[in-house]
Specification:
Structural class: mainly alpha
Number of strands: 3
Radius of gyration: 26 Å
Strand order of the largest sheet: 1-2-3
Largest sheet: 3 strands, mixed
Distance between the termini: 48 Å
Oligomer: single chain
Helix content: 55-70%
Number of helices: 8
Length: 304
């Protein structure tokens, strides 16, 4: 009975996440359309920039939705680890497109700097208010899931950065309306683009590290080796690799040298190693190959 209850609760939470993503996609599509039309009418590059940013938000949310559904598929013969990395790939696509848009905005901003144009501050102000409200609602919907999921966090950062840019557009609209400071539109466009690039860099680096199977930043290989070597019966640890399957699951493989006299204790040594890895390093999936002699003595090319 308890198992059945937990299973139902899991699916209920998953359904809520999917529902929140759908609402967010619809909201952002409406915002994008409003800002695009408003940007054309007002002549505001910052508003058009915000519309492009929001279009990318809508796309990224769509990718997040698809990636989340794919990641829940069960493992099979072709995908023995399952589809967990689908969300990491989704985050990677989101961030790459965000960087491309930021570079495009910088190009347009520089061109507008040398060729300023009149802007309707009132239209710019009203549409930016609509955009801000939509972004705040979307950010609230995504916040809880973004704290536990890199893919949804990338989408959340999209929305949050767009909410900040909407605040900037509101202020710029007022300055243009009151003081005819058209140059503020160009300056704001460049600020928005810089903000996007700054956030994207750190998340893109984290995403690439997972895709490249890099050692997690919070784990030092020598420390893992030393800890494993303290287990009774272990003579040597080598050919040690640690990487992330996704943002939550860390994997390890290693060669473990034991004395021939302890071959009967292999299972207990293995259990001790796995317990140590889980407790000290949060590694719950490890592949351990036991040897009676270091593999360097058996192969011409040494192991890592």
């Amino acid at each position: 009975m308890a198992h059945s209850h937990d299973h139902g609760h899991h699916h209920h939470g998953e359904d809520q996440t999917i529902g929140r993503l759908w609402i967010s996609i619809i909201l952002n599509f409406i915002i994008t359309a409003a800002e695009f039309i408003g940007g054309l009418i007002s002549g505001s590059l910052a508003l058009l920039s915000d519309a492009l940013h929001n279009l990318n938000d809508t796309t990224s949310l769509g990718i997040s939705l698809v990636a989340r559904k794919i990641s829940k598929k069960e493992a099979n013969r072709d995908k023995t680890f399952g589809y967990k990395r689908a969300e990491i790939i989704g985050a990677f696509i989101n961030l790459i497109t965000l960087v491309i848009i930021a570079l495009f905005l910088i190009k347009e901003g520089v061109e507008r700097f040398y060729n300023p144009q009149p802007i309707d501050g009132m239209v710019m102000f009203i549409v930016a208010i609509i955009g801000l409200l939509g972004n705040v609602i979307t950010a609230i919907l995504l916040y809880r899931d973004s704290t536990e999921n890199l893919n949804l966090r990338s989408a959340y950062i999209h929305i949050l950065s767009d909410a900040f840019s909407s605040v900037g557009v509101i202020i710029a609209g007022l300055l243009i309306l009151w003081y005819k400071l058209y140059i503020i539109d160009t300056i704001l466009t460049l600020i928005i683009a810089g903000y996007i690039l700054w956030h994207s860099y750190y998340m893109l680096r984290q995403t690439i590290n997972i895709l490249m199977e890099s050692t997690p930043a919070n784990i030092e290989i020598p420390s893992v080796q030393q800890a494993m070597a303290t287990v009774n019966g272990v003579l040597d640890i080598h050919h040690l690799h640690v990487w992330r399957l996704d943002e939550k699951n860390i994997l390890l493989e290693s060669h473990v040298v034991i004395d021939g006299e302890n071959i009967g204790q292999m299972e207990s040594i293995k259990s001790a190693l796995k317990g140590l890895l889980a407790k000290n390093f949060d590694i719950h999936h490890s592949t351990l190959e036991f040897e009676l002699e270091p593999c360097e003595e058996h192969h011409e090319s040494p192991c890592n």
